[in-house]
Amino acid sequence: MSELLSRERIHVGAVRGRYFRENFAQGGVDLAQIIPELVTNADAAIASSGHERRRIQLSFSAPAPGFVERWREQMRALRVPALTSWRFEVRCSDDGIGVDAAAVDRRLGTLGELPEHPGSQRGLFGRGLRDVWLAQGAGRIEGARGGRAVESWFFPASGDDPYAYLHVRDEPAPNLASGTAVTVPLALERLPVDGRLRTLVCQLVQLRPVLEDPARELVLGLPSGQFEHIQLPEIEPCQERPVLFDDEIKVTSELSAHVTVRRSAAPLPAGTSRATRLGGLVIRSGRAAHESTFAAHEGMPGTRHLYGEVRCDALEHLQRAALNRTRPQLVVKVDRSGLNEHHPAVRALYEQIDRILKPIVAEEDRRASAQVIRPGSALKARDQVGLRALNDALKTAFDGPGKAAFSPGGQSAATAATTDFQDADDAVVPSLPPDVRAEATPLPFAAALRFKTALMRLHPGERRGITLLADPTQVRPGSVIRIAADHGLSVNIAGERLPDPVRSGFSRLDASVRARVTCEPGARLSVHAEVDGYAAELVVLVVRHHASGWVREIARKDEDNEIEAAFDPESGVVTVYEGRREFKALERAARRSGLPKNRVRDYLPYRMLEVEVAASAVYAWAAAEILARRHQEERPQVPPSTPPPPTAKRRRCVTAPTRSSCAPSSTRASSRVGCASSPNSAHAMDISRRCSTTRRHPTHSANRPEHAEPDCAWCTYLGCTISP
Question: Under CATH, which number does the domain 7-229 receive?
Answer without folding.
Answer: 3.30.565.10
